[in-house]
Design a protein that fits this description.
heterodimer, A: alpha/beta, Ubiquitin-like (UB roll), Alpha-Beta Plaits, Dimethylsulfoxide Reductase, domain 2, seven-stranded mixed sheet, 24 helices, 28 strands, B: Glutaredoxin, 2 domains, five-stranded mixed sheet, 5 strands, globular
């Protein structure tokens, strides 16, 4: 078979690999062939007849979406015959499609509308009455309006193939065909909303977004989802400081168009009625609202008094706050408060992995590697539930490249359906012979592998004699960044030893500290009482920890601030501000204000995210990443530490929350969508 | 899957929810996928039919021999319509497309048996017979 085939499309000579479809070859040459049912990455359907093109020496028009290129083929995509055919196709699609564009959510970004504008099917020869059926609600997030459906089956295929769920099907035949959910009259699925986004028309609409706005009235802000650690880009549609939808239709970011229910819908915690919008100070045992000035003065006074009296401080940071905030917080703790009592909730043993890989290059996999590498080994985690993007990448890799997937998990997982081998339990040793003959491998492991377990797993990987890359799974949007930025008592930013290690989070909670400062974390979730003399909490909500605080400062969420976060694979991406919420301030600004009030701002430097990030780039090992990459919305992987980490880190502290698709730690409680979908009730 | 659905329908009388579950399990697909197939084919039924399912062809060849009048006669006589069954569950009616018996039009099919050159009288007798038949 030749390496490439030469053909002519609209007079341009085009080279394409054998087997390439004409529609793809044309796209490579910058020629758009319109199509509804064809969708890159999904199986072929050839249902809509929109992509018809003229091919010389072929008697009839051909569907470009299923026609492979051939040597010497001459294709014409915009002749009057083609235009007429497309016009008739549109007239046919419109026979029962309601002309309710002015009230349809899709109006303005509808592929059918665009095509009708291009080819014009203003008149219809059909005079029969259109069949109207009422719209149906398939779940809190998915609505179906049958008359608008043009039966392209994109939704069915993305659900079957992309998600591996198969919750949508098409029932009946001919003119009465319709998209049907998997359980009677409703959906029981991942509730990811991919079907809604992929719909070329307004047949599937989003429960959150429907009838809220017109697409052109929104500002589209590409930022990073603040829930799990996968770091999906979500494009927030905002208007008047309200988030109206999340999607990623421009396929930007490491996730392409993929988003799970959290990225697409669970931004809705930001306007929860319980959201704190004014500082709270404890007066006569009760938390009372006060002004920022008053609250900051109280905190600064207490901090300065404690410092002057030689009192003790403890600081607990967050898995959700930005790198800049984490860096600034640890700097504050170590340089101003003079303490190494700083920690966060560790959800994966990143430290031991980096130590075990010291001296080696190119050992940390990226999200893209999961789509490209020839073999994947998953140890412990139920990826489809806990890390939906990673699961999606592996599934796409299997579908497109026939990657071999190996699974070692305690229970059945979605990956079993296409795994080359599934092992129940924790023992991966039995896969040695199979893995040895693979050309390359990516190993993912969760918190069931920690401490010596990580070293054992790395030894196993390195003994296979093939290139192996690793991913240590962590829980939250900046879990990885928190440990990189030194929110640990034993390590400084960049994994330098911190000298005399301070107390861990649990030790701090149990100790009689004079001041405990908790930023974006809920360590007293289980109901323990605070021990510290003074408790300062920065949070969005009055969590169990905040309820016990002396001062609570209302914090902005990830969608209300700028900064960077580092995802599970160590890829750094930028947050963009989508909305402003009155009263709440970004944690970085709050810390800066405390520093200013204390009179130590000069010591800590400016609290502008860009300036703090510059300092991170200059001083934190691994963060010398190219600025243009992240400034333009890309992801840059931090470089490996590449040296031993000469401290003992107790692996017992590593504990994952194993959040499912509909959980997101404390934050998840405040999302209406996550609590309203039927599956969240079924799974609890 | 299609033969399995047909055999099962012959046994049970219609394709019930339990049948869908069972066939999905045996074939190794989801119940939704079984539903996709079975709703596509008009000879697979989700609702219980009569013991004797009377299918009257009203396609072109039969129509030329007044099959539409036969259809109306049957509806009137039994007091039921398309895809409906009599109260006692003995007989159900369906207006079908071509059943491949054009040479002997008008044709009527009862379960798997064909009746050729059906006239108004023959249809009367046929239905009367089915009412009493065990």
């Amino acid at each position: 078979m030749p390496d490439s085939v030469k053909l002519t499309i609209d007079g341009h000579e085009v080279q394409a690999a054998p087997g390439t479809l004409v529609i793809d070859a044309a796209k490579q040459a910058g020629i758009e062939i319109p199509a509804f049912c064809y969708y890159e990455g999904l199986t072929l359907q050839a249902a809509c007849r929109m992509c018809l093109v003229e091919v010389e020496k072929m008697p009839k028009l051909q569907a470009a979406c299923t026609l492979p290129v051939a040597e010497g083929m001459i294709v014409r995509t915009e002749t009057s015959q083609v235009a007429t055919a497309r016009k008739y196709t549109l007239e046919f699609l419109l026979t029962n499609h309601p002309l309710d564009c002015p009230v349809c959510d899709k109006g303005g970004e509808c592929e059918l509308q665009d095509m009708v504008f291009r080819y014009g099917a203003g008149e219809s020869r059909f005079t029969e009455i259109k069949i109207h059926t009422p719209e149906k609600q398939y779940s809190p997030v998915v609505y179906f309006d049958a008359p608008r459906c043009i039966l392209c089956f994109r939704c069915v295929r993305i659900c079957n193939e992309g998600m591996g769920v198969g919750a949508l099907g098409v029932i009946n035949r001919g003119a009465v065909s319709e998209i049907a959910p998997n359980v009677g009259d409703h959906l029981e699925c991942d509730e990811c909303g991919a079907c809604v986004d992929i719909c070329p028309v307004g047949a599937l609409t989003s429960g959150a977004y429907r009838y809220q706005t017109r697409p052109w009235e929104m500002t589209h802000v590409g930022t990073i989802c603040t829930h799990c650690a996968d770091g999906c880009k979500t494009t927030l549609g905002t208007r008047n400081d309200r988030i109206l939808r999340g999607n990623n239709r421009d396929h930007s970011g490491i996730n392409g168009e993929f988003l799970c229910v959290k990225g697409r819908y669970a931004y809705d915690f930001y306007d929860h009625p319980d959201r704190l919008q004014a500082p709270l100070v404890r007066v006569n045992r009760k938390l009372e609202e006060t002004s920022w000035a008053q609250a900051l003065e109280t905190v600064a006074k207490k901090f300065n008094e404690t410092l002057a009296g030689g009192g003790s401080f403890g600081v607990i940071g967050s898995n959700h706050t930005t790198n800049e905030e984490n860096f600034y917080l640890q700097k504050f703790a170590r340089e101003v408060l003079g303490t190494n009592h700083i920690d966060h909730h560790r959800t994966g043993d990143v430290v031991t992995l980096l130590d075990a890989l010291s001296g080696q290059q190119d050992k940390l996999a990226t999200v893209a590697d999961l789509y490209q590498r020839k073999a994947i080994l998953v140890v412990g985690a139920d990826l489809a539930i806990e890390h939906p993007l990673l699961s999606y990448q592996i599934r796409a890799n299997y579908r497109h490249h026939q990657a071999r997937i190996y699974v070692v998990t305690p229970g059945p997982v979605r990956e079993d359906n296409y795994a080359a081998a599934s092992v129940r339990g924790h023992e991966y040793e039995s896969l040695r012979e199979k893995l040895k003959v693979e050309p390359e491998l990516v190993i993912l492991f969760d918190d069931s592998v920690k401490g010596d377990g990580v070293r054992k797993l790395v030894d196993f990987g390195e003994s296979l004699g093939i290139p192996v890359k690793y991913i240590c799974l962590v829980d939250y949007s900046n879990s990885r960044g928190a440990v990189d930025m030194g929110l640990t008592p034993e390590l400084l930013p960049g994994y330098h030893p911190a000298g005399q290690p301070g107390m861990h989070a649990q030790e701090m909670l149990a100790a009689d500290l004079n001041v405990l400062w908790v930023v974006g974390s809920n360590p007293l979730k289980a109901g323990a009482s605070r021990k510290a003399g003074f408790l300062l909490v920065q949070d969005m909500f009055l969590t169990e920890t905040a309820q016990q605080a002396d001062v609570v400062l209302p914090a902005a969420c990830a969608y209300e601030k700028i900064g960077t976060v580092t995802n599970v694979t160590g890829e750094v991406q930028r947050l963009k501000r989508g909305v402003n919420t009155m009263g709440a301030k970004p944690d970085l600004e709050i810390m800066g204000f405390i520093a200013r009030e204390m009179g130590v701002a000069a010591k800590l430097g400016p609290w502008a995210p860009e300036i703090v990030f510059e300092e991170i780039r200059k001083t934190v090992r691994g963060y010398q990443i190219p600025l243009p990459v992240i400034a333009t919305g890309g992801a840059a992987q931090t470089m490996p530490v590449n040296g031993r980490i000469p401290v003992e880190v107790p692996s017992g502290l590593v504990r994952s929350d194993h959040n499912g698709l509909f959980d997101s730690g404390t934050l998840g409680r405040y999302s209406k969508v996550l609590n309203s979908v039927i599956e969240s009730r079924l799974s609890r | 899957m299609i033969p399995m659905l047909l055999y099962a329908q012959d046994e049970v009388g219609h394709v019930s929810d339990e049948l869908i579950e069972e066939i999905a399990r045996r074939v190794g697909v989801t119940p939704l996928q079984v539903n996709e197939v079975l709703t596509y084919y008009s000879m697979l039924h989700r609702k219980p039919l009569g013991k004797y399912h009377v299918q009257i062809c009203t396609n072109i060849s039969c129509l030329l021999w007044d099959a539409d009048k036969l259809w109306e006669q049957a509806c009137h006589k039994l007091g039921i319509g398309h895809k409906e069954a009599t109260g006692d569950g003995q007989i159900s009616l369906e207006e079908v497309e071509c059943i491949g018996a054009c040479s002997w039009a008008p044709a009527v099919q009862v379960n798997y048996d064909f009746h050729h050159f059906v006239t108004s009288e023959k249809l009367d007798q046929l239905l009367d017979g089915l009412r009493k038949k065990q």
